[in-house]
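In practice, a research group might receive sequence data for several interacting partners and want a quick structural hypothesis before committing to experiments. The following worked case mirrors that situation: the sequences arrive first, and a predicted assembly follows.
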Amino acid sequence: MDFLKDFTEKINGEIMGYLPENEPAKLYEAVKYLPAAGGKRLRPIMAMLACEAAGGNGENAIPFGIALEITHTFTLIHDDIMDRDEERRGMPAVHKKFGEATAILAGDALFAKAFEIATGTDASPEVVKTLVRNLAVMSREICEGQQMDMGFEEADEVAEEEFLLMIEKKTAKMFEHAAMGGAIISGAGREKQEALQNYGRNVGMAFQIWDDCLDVIGKGIGKPVGSDIREGKKTLIFIHAMRESAEKERLAELYGKEDMTDDELDEVMDMLKRSNSLDYAKEMALRFSETARKNLEKLEEGRAREMLEEIARFAVEREK
Amino acid sequence: MDFLKDFTEKINGEIMGYLPENEPAKLYEAVKYLPAAGGKRLRPIMAMLACEAAGGNGENAIPFGIALEITHTFTLIHDDIMDRDEERRGMPAVHKKFGEATAILAGDALFAKAFEIATGTDASPEVVKTLVRNLAVMSREICEGQQMDMGFEEADEVAEEEFLLMIEKKTAKMFEHAAMGGAIISGAGREKQEALQNYGRNVGMAFQIWDDCLDVIGKGIGKPVGSDIREGKKTLIFIHAMRESAEKERLAELYGKEDMTDDELDEVMDMLKRSNSLDYAKEMALRFSETARKNLEKLEEGRAREMLEEIARFAVEREK
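A structural hypothesis for the assembly, expressed as tokens:
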């Protein structure tokens, strides 16, 4: 996956050029704070590779990919306010660093900027119009996903179907539009557009479910373990366990318990494994990754397609 | 101004059609709550009339005008959170009614919807691309204006120039883009576009400054009086008085004072009148209104142009 590192650096080199130095200084410091902190930049990379794999010039899809990445950043800033999360990427969250009012505004300004960047795509006005419309609809769906996610916190039970719809809206849609956007910009026909749309959505689903798995797989790999369990987050793993586990009552008692001890955390993790809930989620993530790769078969073979395949594999093999 | 009432009803009849019934229900209740509460709808009306006055079919500019109105609504929702305002249009603010998290999301969803609506404009893709880009840049400038406004609260002194730049960004830009957008959609050339752009911006400036005047003119007219004074808001009137008044010290002492008595409020209002600060602001509002009307001379005479003239007059004659 060395190519990913190179592409990440490439995108990081470009992204700050889209965020102007401007007045009022406090607003623009807040606007640039999180984009400057880096990230994998998978959305722009996927847009670029999808464009190339569909027969276009990948460079042309980078601005749209960056528009998606900036939209992603805006949702992180607002989500952290809503979820009262105080840290992001090992730094104070934007609202902790700049205050809540400026954080709300910085998110709004980034969202506006995303549309500005999307209109700068080097493509026909007809294509630009389609991209902007897709970006707008997608953004509204992300809001729906976040509202569902917040609703789950208060719900006694969450159906698996509802959970999958939530992560589709909140996470997978952005990958879907990265890959489909690349295909649209390439000028490819409906079949390739749909193949890449499906590819992106399935990668996004795999990514999110694998992320939840990492929380339980734990120890020895990069991610801090058990934070979903401590917070009582209704992940696919938990939803499965509450349906299938023989230890439901004990699980419900401990999951999300305030001041959970390390022993209790271990007990929960063991229960999630004994009920095969971790395996269930892992297998589902693998299936999404496989479906993603199957969709690529409709594209010409070549380096871009191979790299997209590797990204789909990376989604369920990464350790952080 | 009877035509305004008719047009307001017309727009009110259309605007809810753009806001879908959708899931999650809580999000969409919050999304529709403020748009359903009505308003003057001056932005869509201005877009429609500007389009017609520039030689186009006014109906074609209504979706873009509604996109601006929805953007305006989104900014009100987020501003109320930032400013800790608990009421809006005589009802609990969105964040009081639905909670802050859902209010942030409802604003975001409305903002996304504005772009979706703008892409539905019945015009060439090239025109749509221009409109969307303008909407994006304008929205970012509104964020800049709000950040400036928040900065003024903490500042000891605000220069008149800074104040005027703030209201230009926060308020006048939206009127500017309503009128210019109408011109762009009409297909009119650069000269008419610029005339309507200047018209809109000047109406917006007149509107905002007149709004501040109404806070002091007081008694007997619709608006609750003195709320800017009680909150210590740095209006043009206050900025002028702190420069010109012979009673600066007493004014600084009382302005924005906690638990201000009615007598103290009267004293402040008298000081603002004695220093001619109210008159100064009134005259400036009148000048902006006049400049707006002068710009209309570049358009064909006719009913649409007359109505735009009336709106410019209304901006500085209205009593609420």
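Before designing any experiment, note the following. Residues 111 and 134 of chain B are 14 Å apart (CA to CA). The mean pLDDT of chain B is 95.
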